[in-house]
Amino acid sequence: MNTNRTRYHVGFHEIGLDSEYRVECIGEDVAEIFAWLEGDISGVAEDVEDDTPFDELYARLAKCETVAELVGEHVVDAFVFFMRPVTDCGCPCDCDERGEECDGTHHREATEPKLTEADEQGRSTCLEFFPVVVTDIPADEDHAPLLLDPAAARIVRAAEVAEGDTILASFPDHHHGDALREQLTAYGNLGRLPRSDYMNDQYQAHPMPYDRTCGCGSCANLADCTEAVVNLGDDNPWDVCDPWPATDLVLIVPA
Questions:
Q1: Cα-Cα-Cα-Cα dihedral sign, residues 112, 23, 132, 117
Q2: Phi-psi bin for 135: left (phi > 0), alpha (psi -120 to 50), beta?
C-alpha cells in the first residue's frame, strides 16, 4: 500500500472532545474535501438554534478554489471543523485485498489519534500542542505569589474551564481558529511565540451564562465577538463578569 504522499483528514469535533463521527482521509481533491466539510457543517447546523454562523462558514469555504485555502481549523460556536494535511498517514484501505496499488486518491476512513482518559470535568488529560510559551510568573509587586503548584498547571480553551479551576494567565497574542495556520507560519522562532500574561492574582472560575446586556461593564466588551463567548464568573478580584472568546487559551490549575 503506497501511503507516502500528502492526504487530508477532514472532519469536526466539539472543542476539547474527540470526533464523534467519522473523519475522512481524502486525497488532494478540493471538490471532494469541500463536499465532506459541507456535509459536516450542514449536519451540525441542523441541530443548533442559530445556524447563521454555520451558513457564513459554508459561504466562505465555498469560495475556496484550492486545497491550501481549506487547510486549517474553522471554529464556529463550540465546534471545530478541520482539514489537516498528513503525510504517510497509513490509514487502512482495501486496495491490497483487491490486489490493486493504492493511488492515494480514493476516500478511506481516517485513523485519528484518540484523546486519553478524561479528567473529572470530562476534559482530555492528553497534552495538546499550542504555539505559545508558558513563562514563570513575574517576581514583582504587581503579581501575587502563586498559592498552587505551577507543575499542575495546564493550558485549556476558555470553553473548557470548569467550576473551581484556578485561572493563572491568558495568552492575549494567540489567535485560534481560522488564523492558526497563518500564525504558525509567521513564527520563525521560539522567541516570537505568544507568551503567558499572568493575572495580578490567581482566582477561581465559576462559569455562568454570558449576557452581553448584563450591564456589568465587562460583558459589553465582547458584544461584537464573532465567535462564541463564555463567562467564567463574577467572583474574581474585579467583582465583574469575566467573558472570554470560547477558543482563547487559558493557563489553569484544574480543580
A1: negative
A2: beta
What pLDDT, on the 0 to 100 scale, is given for residue 122? 53
List the one residue out of 150, 201, 194 whose CA is nearest residue 173.
Answer: 194
492558526: which residue's cell? 180
177 touches 183 (CB < 8 A): no
Closest CA to 79 of 124, 177, 13: 13
Dihedral (C-alpha) 240, 244, 249, 251: value to the nearest 10 degrees? 10
CA gap 149, 62 in Å, rounded? 48
Q: Is 207 helix (H, G, I), strand (E, B) or coil?
A: coil
List the Cα angle 131/134/137 in 5-degree steps.
155
**pLDDT score of 206:** 92
10-residue averages of pLDDT along the chain (255 residues): 64 79 82 89 87 88 86 82 77 61 59 54 53 77 80 83 89 55 42 75 90 87 80 88 86 87
* CA 199 to the chain's CA centroid: 22
Alpha carbons 115 and 13: distance in angstroms, whole number: 12
pLDDT at 1: 40
Is 198 within 8 Å of 168 (Cβ atoms)?
yes
What would the DSSP string read from start to end of 137-191?
PP-STTSPPPSS-GGG-EEEEGGG--TTPEEEEE-TT---GGGHHHHHHH--SGG
CB 178 within 8 A of CB 233: no
Can you say how many angstroms the Cα of residue 18 is from the centroid of all Cα atoms in its chain? 12
Grid cell at residue 138: 513575574
Cell of 212: 452581553
